[in-house]
C-alpha cells in the first residue's frame, strides 16, 4: 500500500477507497489504536502494552494504567496512521472503546477520539469493548456468516455469546465468579510464576502431563455459566498438600480443566443456537492448548472453529474500528456528549 | 491570533477562546464529574457561537493541574490530541497559577488551595509582581494543617482562595490576618488561562504534546503502598 496523501480524494486512501475508521482502545492495560477499512480490511494495528508497569503489583493498577494511557495515546495514534499510510484527514470516522473497563482509562481513549472527531469534523463512535472482541474475527474472515457462537475469555470476562445477526447478540452464559484470565493469574501466583499468569502457564503446561492430576471441571455438565473460583482453590489446596508435585504437571492439569470447560460450553452453545462456526476472542483465546484442542473438538462435533490470530484476540484498536463500522451503519454517530461506561453490558436481544 | 484554552483540573469544566487582546468567549461549568461529557460539546458550542473553525487556531492552552486525576486527564488528553491533529503548539499552564493570577492586584501573600480529596489540598504561594504574580514555592500537596503551619511561620497577611481553602476554612482560623477569596474564585479561571497562555505564546514558550504531563504530585495508591513496604 502506498503512503497516504494530504487528504487527497483520488489517492489510494481517499474517497475511491472504502470507509476508513480509526479505533482507540484504552479500557484496561493496553494503549491501542488501529485503522480498519469498511469494517473488515485491517490497515494497521498498534498496541503499546503496559504489562511491565503492572507486573510488580501482580495485577493492573487503575491509576497507573490511566497515567500510562495519557502518555502513550498520542504516539500510538501517530504510529497507527503511519503504518496504515494515512493522514488524519483521510479518516471517515473515529471510534473509542467506551466501556466496559476501568473508568479513568476509558476516559483517556474517549477524550482522544472526540478530540480527533472535533478537529477533523468526522463522526465519533463509542464502541462496546465486548462487541469489539466479536468483530475482531471479521478482520481475518470477512465472510463469517451468523449465526455464530463466541467464547470471550480474558482477565475481565468469560462468556458464551451467540451472534444471530450483526448487532444481534444473546449472552448464553458467563462466569459467576472469577474470569478465566483471573484464574490463570491466581493459579500462577500459587505455583510461583510471574504476572501475567496466562502466557507463563501456557509455556510450562506444554512441558507437563495434563492427565497427571485430575482437577475439577466446575459446572461443566450443565448450562452455559462458568465458575473458576473452586478450580483455583482446588489447585491451591493440591499444591499445599503435594509440595513435590511437578509445576509443569500442575500447570498442564489446571489449564486442561479450564480448556475442557470452555470448549464444552462453547460447543453446547453452538448446538443450542444452530451455529455451524464457533469463534474465540479475548486474551485467554491466545492460549495454545485452547486453540489446538478447540480445532479438534469442533471438527469432531461437525463444526468449524475460527481462531483469530492471537494479536487480534487480545485487546487492540482495530477491533474497535471494525465494530464501529457496523455501529455507525446501524445507529449513526455517538454524540460528543457520550461518556465512558465502566459497567457497560453487551446489548442483547433477550 | 486565536487560542483555545481548556482546564478540567477541578470539578469545573472550563473552555475559553482568546484573541490578541481579549477573551472572546468562555464557558465555565461548575458541575462536578463527567468532564468528558461536557468538554467536547462545550468546545463545539463556543466555536459555533463565535463562528470560528478549529483550523483558525494558533495554539492550545491547557491547565495541567495539580487537580483531580480523572478529570484532569480529560482536558490534558483532549488538548494533546487536538494539538497533534491540528499541528499547532501546545501551551501548558499549572492550574494553581490560574487562581493566583485572578487576584494579582492583592498585595497579600496569595495562596491558592485546591481540594485534593482525602483531607488534603494542592497549594502553592505567590506574590504580586508588575503584570502578574510570581510563584514563591513548589507545587505542594498536604493537609490544611500542614499549610496552616507553613503560613503561620511566615506571619504575613495572606489571601487564601480555591475550593480547598473554602472547604477547610475553619482550619485556617488560627491564622491572623487571613482573608478568603469568594466562592466565585473557587476554581481555576479560564480567562486567566487565556492571559497566561497568550504571554507564553508571545514568548514562543511552546511544548510538544509528548512533553506535556499533568502535575499529579501524588503517586498512585499501589505505588505509595509499595514505597511504604519497601521501607
Ligand atoms: Zn478485552
Descriptive account of the structure:
The complex is a heterodimer of chains A (350) and B (231). Chain A is α/β, with parallel strands linked by helices and 350 residues long. Helix content of chain A is 42%, strand content 18%. Chain B is of the alpha/beta class and 231 residues long. Chain B is globular, with a radius of gyration of 18 Å. Chains A and B meet through helix 2 and helix 3 of A and helix 1, helix 2 and helix 7 of B. The structure holds zinc ion. Zinc ion binds next to helix 4 of chain A.
Describe, in short, the structure shown.
The complex is a heterodimer of chains A (350) and B (231). Chain A is α/β, with parallel strands linked by helices and 350 residues long.
Task: Note the topology.
The complex is a heterodimer of chains A (350) and B (231).
Chain A: E1 20-25, E2 30-37, E3 41-49, H1 51-55, H2 62-84, E4 93-99, H3 103-120, E5 124-128, H4 129-136, E6 148-153, E7 158-165, E8 168-174, H5 180-190, H6 197-205, H7 229-241, H8 247-273, E9 277-281, H9 288-300, E10 304-306, H10 310-313, H11 317-331
Parallel strand pairs in A: 1-4, 4-5, 6-9, 9-10
Antiparallel strand pairs in A: 1-2, 2-3, 6-7, 7-8
Helix pairs in contact in A: 2-3, 4-11, 5-6, 5-7, 5-8, 6-8, 8-9
Chain B: E1 3-7, E2 13-18, E3 23-29, H1 35-49, E4 59-63, H2 69-86, E5 90-93, H3 95-102, E6 109-115, E7 121-123, E8 126-129, E9 132-135, E10 140-142, H4 144-154, E11 158-161, H5 163-167, E12 178-180, H6 190-202, H7 221-230
Parallel strand pairs in B: 1-4, 4-5, 6-11, 11-12
Antiparallel strand pairs in B: 1-2, 2-3, 6-7, 7-10, 8-9
Helix pairs in contact in B: 1-2, 3-6
Amino acid at each position: 500500500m502506498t503512503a497516504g496523501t494530504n487528504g487527497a480524494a483520488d489517492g489510494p486512501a481517499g474517497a475511491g477507497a472504502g470507509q476508513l475508521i480509526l479505533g482507540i482502545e484504552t479500557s484496561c492495560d493496553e494503549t491501542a489504536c488501529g485503522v480498519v477499512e469498511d469494517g473488515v480490511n485491517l490497515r494497521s494495528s498498534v498496541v503499546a502494552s503496559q504489562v511491565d508497569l503492572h507486573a510488580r503489583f501482580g495485577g493492573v493498577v487503575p491509576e497507573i494504567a490511566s497515567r500510562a494511557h495519557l502518555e502513550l495515546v498520542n504516539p500510538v495514534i501517530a504510529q497507527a496512521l503511519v503504518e496504515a499510510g494515512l493522514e488524519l484527514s483521510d479518516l471517515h470516522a473515529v471510534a473509542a472503546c467506551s466501556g466496559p473497563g476501568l473508568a479513568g482509562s476509558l476516559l483517556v481513549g474517549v477524550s482522544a477520539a472526540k478530540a480527533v472527531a472535533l478537529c477533523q469534523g468526522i463522526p465519533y463512535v463509542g464502541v462496546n469493548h465486548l462487541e469489539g472482541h466479536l468483530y475482531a474475527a471479521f478482520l481475518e474472515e470477512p465472510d463469517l456468516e451468523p449465526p455464530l457462537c463466541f467464547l470471550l475469555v480474558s482477565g475481565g470476562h468469560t462468556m458464551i455469546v451467540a451472534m444471530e445477526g450483526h448487532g444481534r447478540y444473546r449472552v448464553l452464559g458467563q462466569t459467576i465468579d472469577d474470569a478465566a484470565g483471573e484464574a490463570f493469574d491466581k493459579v500462577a501466583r500459587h505455583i510461583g510464576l510471574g504476572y501475567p499468569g496466562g502466557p507463563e502457564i501456557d509455556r510450562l503446561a506444554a512441558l507437563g502431563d495434563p492427565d497427571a492430576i485430575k482437577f475439577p471441571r466446575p459446572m461443566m455438565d450443565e448450562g452455559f455459566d462458568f465458575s473458576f473460583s473452586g478450580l483455583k482453590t482446588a489447585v491451591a489446596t493440591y499444591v499445599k498438600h503435594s509440595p513435590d508435585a511437578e509445576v509443569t504437571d500442575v500447570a498442564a492439569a489446571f489449564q486442561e480443566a479450564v480448556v475442557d470447560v470452555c470448549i464444552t460450553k462453547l460447543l453446547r452453545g453452538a448446538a443450542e443456537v444452530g451455529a455451524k462456526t464457533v469463534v474465540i476472542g479475548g486474551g485467554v483465546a491466545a492460549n495454545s492448548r485452547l486453540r489446538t484442542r478447540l480445532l479438534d473438538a469442533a471438527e469432531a462435533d461437525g463444526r468449524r472453529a475460527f481462531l483469530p490470530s492471537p494479536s487480534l484476540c487480545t485487546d487492540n484498536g482495530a477491533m474497535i474500528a471494525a465494530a464501529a463500522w457496523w455501529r455507525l451503519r446501524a445507529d449513526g454517530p455517538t454524540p460528543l456528549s457520550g461518556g465512558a461506561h465502566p459497567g457497560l453490558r453487551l446489548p442483547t436481544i433477550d | 491570533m486565536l487560542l483555545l484554552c481548556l482546564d478540567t483540573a477541578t470539578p469545573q469544566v472550563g473552555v475559553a477562546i482568546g484573541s490578541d487582546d481579549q477573551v472572546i468567549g468562555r464557558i465555565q461549568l461548575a458541575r462536578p464529574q463527567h468532564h468528558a461529557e461536557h468538554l467536547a460539546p462545550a468546545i463545539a458550542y463556543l466555536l459555533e457561537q463565535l463562528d470560528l473553525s478549529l483550523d483558525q487556531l494558533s495554539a492550545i492552552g491547557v491547565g495541567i493541574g495539580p487537580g483531580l486525576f480523572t478529570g484532569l486527564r480529560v482536558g490534558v488528553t483532549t488538548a494533546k490530541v487536538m494539538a497533534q491533529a491540528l499541528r499547532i503548539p501546545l501551551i501548558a499552564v499549572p492550574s494553581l497559577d490560574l487562581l493566583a493570577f485572578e487576584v494579582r492586584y492583592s498585595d497579600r501573600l496569595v495562596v491558592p488551595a485546591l481540594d485534593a480529596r482525602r483531607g488534603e489540598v494542592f497549594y502553592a504561594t505567590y506574590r504580586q509582581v508588575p503584570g502578574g504574580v510570581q510563584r514563591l514555592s513548589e507545587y505542594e500537596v498536604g493537609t490544611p494543617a500542614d499549610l496552616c503551619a507553613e503560613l503561620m511561620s511566615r506571619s504575613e497577611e495572606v489571601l487564601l482562595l480555591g475550593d480547598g481553602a473554602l472547604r477547610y476554612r475553619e482550619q485556617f482560623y488560627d491564622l491572623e490576618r487571613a482573608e478568603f477569596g469568594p466562592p466565585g474564585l473557587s476554581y481555576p479561571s479560564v480567562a486567566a488561562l487565556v492571559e497566561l497562555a497568550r504571554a507564553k505564546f508571545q514568548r514562543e514558550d511552546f511544548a510538544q504534546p509528548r512533553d506535556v504531563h499533568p502535575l499529579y504530585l501524588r503517586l498512585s495508591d499501589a505505588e505509595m503502598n509499595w514505597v511504604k513496604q519497601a521501607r
